[in-house]
Specification:
alpha+beta, 5-stranded mixed sheet
């Protein structure tokens, strides 16, 4: 109950500030107890997953600098951690990011623990594609109930560690620069003593890995996959951005695939476009070679149209010859 409501109920006429300060002192005494147990994490049992938002905007080229999410995964037993900045919180991006971090572990934890992240799932409902991803890994997804930060306090404390130890005094030119600096720093952080376990993550990593599941050689259907008919303007759209395609594929079905780094377009198995993935939004990414090829095709099309017009102009109606010889007024000449 807010202090202002308490003041109204008891008919308080004094200082509201004084009342608020004294109510705050007695609140802990009447608050219901909500105990939290200490959990012992067995080797290979779980990895805590979370999104950390560094308090510094990252330049994105043509777009204004923005706060970008960082996907963090920490092994619960060894406290070994891996992280990388990602372009958004969409499901496709989260799954790609998780796959890249799991490859750094070289094994798969038996459980992946998430809170209620919309791109992963909430309650008993998983986002589209998440169940297939977990099935490919052979692991179990655990979605925590709301307002339960203690259940994944390991990764929450790591996020605070990043903010206090990694961020101060650093500047970043791009998301790629951020990831390079972060990966270098994490390699050192994983060799530092963790007070709660009195060991370094690197010392316990092998024990953790031995109890984990094997990492599959590949996970299919990750990222963006779509098949579209290439329009006359020879661009395809991936996550709000447009990417140019070789105009020779206009009017044909093309296969578009994208991950965190590249956007590729194929037609009949032949590569028709390969662009760096743009992290900014609503941009148009153009390959100059595609523009030059489109200009040549346009010139060839226009020259063909001109030749057709010239050929059509050489064909005359026979009545024009009748008029030229003064025969158009003779009726029944054709008979």
């Amino acid at each position: 109950m807010p202090s202002t409501v308490i003041a109204e109920r008891i008919g308080w006429t004094g200082s509201v500030r004084w009342l608020r300060e004294h109510v705050a002192k007695i609140r802990p005494e009447i608050r219901p107890a909500d105990p939290s147990d200490r959990i012992t994490w067995l080797p290979g049992n779980a990895a805590h997953c979370d999104l950390w938002f560094p308090p510094q905007k990252i330049p994105l080229g043509q777009d204004p600098a923005s706060l970008m999410p960082v996907l963090v995964m920490t092994l619960a037993h060894s406290r070994f951690t891996a992280a990388r900045m990602i372009p958004s919180r969409h499901t496709e991006v989260l799954l790609l990011g998780m796959w890249e971090l799991l490859q750094q572990f070289e094994r798969v934890p038996r459980r992946l623990i998430w809170d209620n992240e919309a791109g992963i799932g909430r309650g008993k409902k998983h986002a589209v594609g998440v169940e297939q991803f977990m099935g490919s890994l052979g692991t179990k997804l655990v979605l925590l109930p709301p307002r339960d930060p203690e259940s994944k306090g390991i990764v929450e404390r790591r996020n605070d560690f990043y903010e206090r130890s990694f961020m101060p005094g650093r500047q970043f030119e791009s998301p790629q620069d951020f990831n390079e600096q972060l990966s270098t720093w994490i390699r050192k952080a994983n060799t530092r003593m963790v007070r709660t376990i009195r060991r370094t993550p690197m010392e316990l990593l092998d024990t953790d890995r031995k109890a984990m599941l094997p990492l599959p050689p590949a996970v299919f259907d990750l990222g963006w996959r779509q098949q579209v008919r290439l329009p006359r303007d020879y661009y395809v759209r991936v996550a709000t951005c447009d990417y140019s395609v070789a105009p020779q594929a206009i009017g044909r079905m093309v296969d578009v695939s994208a991950d965190l780094e590249r956007v590729k377009v194929r037609c009949g198995g032949k590569l028709m476009a390969d662009h760096p993935r743009s992290w900014a939004k609503h941009l148009t990414v153009t390959d100059p070679q595609h523009v030059a090829a489109a200009a040549l095709l346009r010139q060839a099309f226009q020259a063909r149209a001109t030749r057709q017009e010239q050929e059509e102009s050489l064909i005359r109606d026979l009545s024009e010859y009748d008029r030229a010889f003064g025969l158009h007024h003779i009726e029944g000449l054709g008979a």
